Amino acid sequence: MRSSRVLMAGAATAALLFTAACTTDAPTDAVPEAGGTASEEAGADESGANSQWFVQADYERQLAQRSAVPEGPADQPWLQAIDPEFVDTAQYAKEGGKKLCFSNASLSNPWRVTAFITMQQQVEVLKASGEISEFRVSDAADDDNKQITDIQAFVEAGDCDAIIISPSTTATLTPAVEAACESGKPVIVFDRGVNTDCMVTYIHPIGGYAYGADGAEFLVDNLEPGSKVLALRVLPGVDVLENRWAAADKIFSESEIEVVGQEFTGGDGAKIKDIVTQYLQRGDVDGIWMDAGDGAVAAVEAFEDAGKPYPVFMGEDELSFMRKWQETDMTALGTVYSTFQWRTPVLAAQKIWNGEQVPVEWVLPQSPITEKDLDKYLEANKDMPSLHYAKFGGEDLPGYPEAWSDR
Predict the structure, then answer these.
(1) Maximum Cα–Cα distance for the chain, whole Å?
(2) What is the DSSP string of 352-372?
(3) Contact 2, 361 (CB under 8 A)
């Protein structure tokens, strides 16, 4: 189970280099058959469920895991695990204050900023208890070479009692992760994966297929047959984003929904609004599917400016979208890629230092925010900034709420 997940995990930085060349400034003119996309009908490279990114076994597993009952405390989803297989860590047991080292791919978007604050506050708890003496962090700023150097520096220093790594990309970072493993220190990889099983544990939510399927199924269930959906995508070539679209494409192709286009936006609000506006000038759009929530409000505003009815909308648990959802009373879903996962590596390090077993692949729960939960999450986060994420998982930490609200 683990190997296929590792092989398919994260290539975001490489994709960023090609954003300008691969995004589209205007919708394509081709009119696709139901279940296809304008880009595909215009002769673009195969994508979605027909692409190299789609792995049937991974798709089936992730969709099944959505309904699995995770092991662990009900009120602490960051400590829950789906179908875990445990590994012994007695060899890493250590007493006293420990130095925790973290190599971060970047803080280049609001999701990562929100999540890193949660991680920092979890570290503060373990500092207060004397379990962590120092938290050393390096930020690669989405630069593979810098992250390789950062990890090498941790290894050469020799004083890290555990090394947490959120890789920038998969293949390029694999040798650096392997070198960290060879140092004899426990290595914890999370968020994105690498092409090795050497780490003690690999931590992540269910995955991109589950995310994309949640939104696609919602649109199919809430739209009439023959309805038209526009897919807004951030970047090509990023594994988790490609998996999201592959799952959605498969579900749409097996329904009576017509996908009128899939357009790359770079997550730019102005570009999103322009693309949606152009599609609305050409005809109706009944639903919006997005592979990430950045810029969701801009898409909604395009409908308002055009005087069109609100679409059935797939957004994310970012507060700017959730507040717009509540304000407009749209039919919508807030998909989630669990931000609280950033607590788990810190707590995994604590378990490892205590010689406790941890999952070899630590799969965390991942469930969307529905209409019935919307008011509850907005009330709980009423003092948080617009770029905050509702399922940040830090309400019980000592810095709450100021650490997140005063960022």
Answers:
(1) 66
(2) HHTT--EESEEEEP--PBPHH
(3) yes
| Cα three-residue angle 363-369-375, rounded to 5 degrees | 145
Q: Decide if 189 contacts 177 (C-beta within 8 A).
A: yes
Helix or strand run (H / E) with residue 343? none
Q: Tell me what pLDDT residue 388 has.
A: 97
Helices (H), 67-207: 110-128, 144-157, 174-182
Going from the C-alpha of 150 to that of each of 102, 134, 180, the distances in angstroms are: 9, 17, 11
Per the model's pLDDT, the better-predicted residue between 44 and 261 turns out to be 261
**pLDDT recorded at residue 193:** 84
pLDDT at 30: 33
Q: Please check whether residue 215 is in contact with residue 333, taking contact to mean a CB–CB distance below 8 angstroms.
A: yes
User: Mean pLDDT of all residues in the chain?
Assistant: 89
Question: Does the model's pTM come out above 0.90?
Answer: no
For Cα atoms 266, 270, 276, give the angle at the middle one, nearest 5 degrees: 85
How far is 265 from 391, CA to CA, in rounded Å? 25
Task: Say what the alpha-carbon torsion angle 43, 246, 257, 302 is, to the nearest 10 degrees.
Answer: -80
Helices marked H in 72-227: 110-128, 144-157, 174-182, 208-222
- The dihedral over CA atoms of 308, 309, 314, 318, expressed in degrees to the nearest 10, equals 80
Give CA–CA dist 119/340, Å, rounded: 8
Q: How far apart (Å, rounded) are the C-alpha atoms in residues 53 and 241?
A: 10
| Total length of the chain | 407
Question: What sign results for the dihedral spanned by CA atoms 373, 378, 368, 223?
Answer: positive
Indicate the residue type of 174.
Answer: T
CB atoms within 10 A of CB 371: 14
Among the listed residues 110, 53, 105, the one whose alpha carbon sits nearest the alpha carbon of residue 407: 110
**How far apart are the C-alpha atoms of 345 and 135, rounded to whole Å?**
13
What gap in Å lies between CA 216 and CA 63, rounded to an integer? Answer: 12
